[in-house]
Amino acid sequence: MRFQTKLVITLIMAVIGVTIALMTATEMKIRQTYINQFSTEFRSLLVGLERSRKLRSDEFMALCRDLARSEHVIAVLQGTADEESSQAFWQQYLADLREMEPGRTDGSSSSPVNRSPVSQDLLNKLGNVAAMNLEGEVIPIVHPRAEDVRKGKFRRPGVSREKAKEAFEKFLKSDTQETVFLPMDFQGRKPVVQEMVSTPVVDPVSGGIIGLFLRASASETEAERSLERYQEEFGVDRRIRSGLYLGGEIYSRNLDEMFAAELSKSIEDFLNAPLESGAESRFETTIGDEDYLVYVDRINEADSFQPPYQIAAFPISGLRADLTEFRIRGSGIAGAVLIVAIGIAFLLARNLAGPINELVVGTNAIRAGDFDHRVAVKSADEIGDLASSFNEMAEELKQKSLYRELLGKVSDETVAQALVSGSLDLELGGEIKEVSVLFCDIRGFTRQTEEMHPSEVIRMLNDHMTAMTELVRKHKGVVDKFVGDEIMAVFGGLKSYGNDAANAAACALEMIEERKRLNESPGLKVEIGIGVATGEVVAGCMGSVDRLNYTVLGSRVNLAARLCGAAGPMEVVTDDETIRRLSPAPEAEVISDLALKGFSQSVQAFRLRALASAKVDTGVTTNS
Question: Regarding the domain delimited by 425-610, which CATH topology (the fold level of the hierarchy) does it fall under?
């Protein structure tokens, strides 16, 4: 995969990742804000309901304590009740209820029963009152006009008689006033939860408890009814669905049975699940196709019979719709941002990848030897600095290539490579090595070129030296220098190949053959003589501190030069050390007591005819 493609993909993935992270964080924030807002409203609602319920409970408990001291209630429990005591009881009851009406300030508590007509609304507030004797028998106390109020049934289908009996037995054993919530049935109406106040009745004579005064009224407070009316303004889909959860069922006037049943099951699962310390009493559930946030708050902590819970279910379909709209709009914005990001990524990738591609092309050109290749500097940033550095490097490589080429032309290629690589010590001096030295000289060169034009002489020498140099390299030798028409070559100087004498001898014989081949061409006929000597020499860089030359010095070098001078046309003359190192023995003619200039004693030399393996015919008679 190309760099430009990788860069574009990386930038696109970064934009997508950031967009998803932002949308997720925003959704969580919207959801949390939405829920927190509802939680705040619900908490305010609960505080209002609890305050209203406590106020009403305090009023009713005070009312029940007052009524429990009524002569009629005591007479009912003692079985001596009459019409007169009943009328007095209801006069007192209605007067107390009128006192509890909002805005009433006359303070009257004993208004006659016929003082004003008893309205149906006031009659409804009477609730169900009864007396229960110590045997557990419940004796209803019914207002004369309440013909439609049947004798109270303090249970409803689904609440067993045993449970109701358990509550009544608890009342009889208690000598304090208590409140309990119980489900009740009324003919032709939905089951409701009634708040029952149990008040002990004391005999004024004996001072003992002779029974209980029971008053049961709807648990729904005026605040709850006001909330119901207020919610009409919200519409059906956004209304808070509230009610009381009691004994595994929900009681509410505004919930249908199917919804109430499903919500009851969810509340039961929630209440049975372990709740972490400090956790809020809320959870989310799905009923039908709608999601709800449900709050559960226990009303009466002291009620151990069947604890009632105030519940409120808030539909969060609005939240879902808002989040859906947010996702759609967010996706549109993200798509637009992504398109812009792709364009920016493409431009950035092109601006970055373009110069990099040019550098790749330039690098390949340099690798191929094109040191004149340059890349364009298009910016003043790091990419521009890199392009400038590349051009500087190319220029330096070009200069080094020129120096190396020139070095290879003014010295042997092997020496030049050793100098460039650093394997050859450039310090003045040398080291002792065993080498084979070869000198090759043209016979009668001065006489032959006396009448030639200098340019022709140069051309002839260049052709001759080129051919001879190639043979030296072929046989792993190093051309030490050119001295006029003479070539000096060293075998084993920079690196020994183990058979340096054989390489020098083979090179000398092939030089003779090559010169014969060249003489077959039109032009000046040239004959050469070659001398070869083997032994210890001093090899190294020699000269001045600012101009060095790799060469070898020693008596064996001088011997090779003198043997070259003693060689006849197209002959190879070697010393005895070279012959001794050739195996198998070559074809050679012994030259005894050869006197050489510069040597105090004569030396033994050999005219080399052919190597044993080559059997080269030099055209000279062999005397073995």
Answer: Alpha-Beta Plaits (3.30.70)
Which residue, among 439, 447, 622, has the nearest Cα to 525 in the 3D structure?
447
d(CA 92, CA 344): 87
**Do β-strands 282-287 and 309-315 pair in parallel, antiparallel, or remain unpaired?**
unpaired
Q: Sign of the CA dihedral 393, 399, 402, 403? A: negative
Report how far residue 393's alpha carbon sits from residue 397's, in angstroms, rounded to the nearest whole number. 6
**CA 69 → CA 76, 198, 199, distances in Å?**
12, 13, 10
Q: Report how far apart, in Å, the C-alpha atoms of 72 and of each of 69, 109, 131, 335, 618 are.
A: 9, 17, 10, 82, 163
Q: Is pLDDT above 70 for 375?
A: yes
- Is 425-610 in the same CATH topology as 69-219? no
| pLDDT tens per residue across span 346-370 | 777 777 767 777 778 888 888 887 8
So what's the pLDDT on residue 151?
Answer: 43
Tell me the C-alpha distance between 89 and 95, whole Å. Answer: 10
List C-alpha distances in Å: 290 to 216, 250, 287, 394: 36, 19, 6, 73
Domain ranges across the chain: 69-219, 369-410, 425-610
Q: Is 562 exposed, middle or buried (0-12, 13-18, 19+ CB in 10 A)?
A: buried
Q: What angle do CA 267, 239, 37 make, to 5 degrees?
A: 80
Question: Could you give the CA distance from residue 82 to residue 343 in angstroms, rounded to a whole number?
Answer: 98
The side-by-side arrangement of strands in the sheet containing 192-202 is: 138-141, 128-133, 209-218, 192-202, 178-184
Residue type at 274 in one-letter notation: P
Quickly name the fold that domain 69-219 has.
Beta-Lactamase (3.30.450)
Q: Which residues, other chains included, contact 253 with Cβ-Cβ below 8 Å and sequence gap of 6+?
A: 190, 192, 220, 228
Distance of CA 585 to the CA centre of its chain: 78
pTM over the 0.85 mark: no
Distances (CA, A) of 79 to 82, 175, 213, 290: 9, 22, 14, 57
In what order do the strands lie in the sheet containing 282-287? Answer: 249-251, 241-246, 309-315, 290-298, 282-287
